[in-house]
Amino acid sequence: MFKALIVLAILAIAGMANAQNSASATGTATASVICPIKLTPGTIAFGNLVSGSGTVSMDNTGVMTYGGNTNPGSQGGSHSPATWGVTGQGGFLFNVTDDNVRAFVLSDGASPTPHTISGNANLVDNNPHTLSNPVEGTCNGSATFKQGGSAVLSGQPAGSYSTTNTGGSGWSETVTYN
């Protein structure tokens, strides 16, 4: 009996000697691919301005301030801040990153030398913003932000001025997920 116990002990020790001294496993990975963020530009509409000298400005809510002799009185026409549209992953936060130079040039497109009005867009505030419709896995999130600006008149002739006319240029904004 004693011999049997010794044999069993030897077999048990031998089994331990054959025990695994390393282990391996395979890791897994997952990812959730989200919608790209997109930006649709807005347009600042200053309305009617009197040809003369002065600065006109509009805040991000559309309130106008006229300097010099640019005020058209009750004939101001339609004015509004730029309304930019943002789309992307619903419920996600995003920031508006203002470029250091938000300068723009309004031009009448006259040939051979266009008449121009220099301006600057306002900074955009209230970061971060939130895209609507927080439904997981959908690309139907949307938001808007508004942006006013200012323009300096210095005796430009009457006409229709735009950043899209020859000699004009707009400004850029950037949106990024937060």
Detailed description of the structure:
The protein is mainly β and 178 residues long. The chain has one domain. 9% of the residues lie in helices and 31% in strands. The protein contains 1 helix and 11 strands; from the N terminus they run αβββββββββββ. The chain has one helix at 2-17; strands at 38-40, 53-58, 64-66, 82-88, 93-98, 103-107, 116-121, 129-130, 141-147, 149-154, 173-177. The strands form 3 sheets. A 5-stranded antiparallel sheet has the order 3-2-10-7-6, with no helix packed on it. It has a 3-stranded antiparallel sheet with strand order 1-4-9, with no helix packed on it. The protein has a 3-stranded antiparallel sheet with strand order 8-5-11, with no helix packed on it. β6 and β7 form a beta hairpin. The relative contact order is 0.24.
Question: What is the strand and helix layout of this fold?
Answer:
Layout: H1 2-17, E1 38-40, E2 53-58, E3 64-66, E4 82-88, E5 93-98, E6 103-107, E7 116-121, E8 129-130, E9 141-147, E10 149-154, E11 173-177
Antiparallel strand pairs: 1-4, 2-3, 2-10, 4-9, 5-8, 5-11, 6-7, 7-10
Task: List descriptors.
11 strands, mainly beta, 178 residues, 5-stranded antiparallel sheet, 9% helix, 3-stranded antiparallel sheet
Short description:
9% of the residues lie in helices and 31% in strands. It has 178 residues and is mainly beta.
The chain-level structural class is mainly beta
Strands ordered across the widest β-sheet: 3-2-10-7-6
Element pattern in H and E: HEEEEEEEEEEE
- Beta content: 25-35%
The main sheet comes to: 5 strands, antiparallel
Nearest-integer average pLDDT: 88
Kindly provide the radius of gyration, computed on alpha-carbon positions and rounded to a whole number of angstroms. Answer: 33 Å
The dominant shape is rod-shaped
Overall tally of structural domains: 1
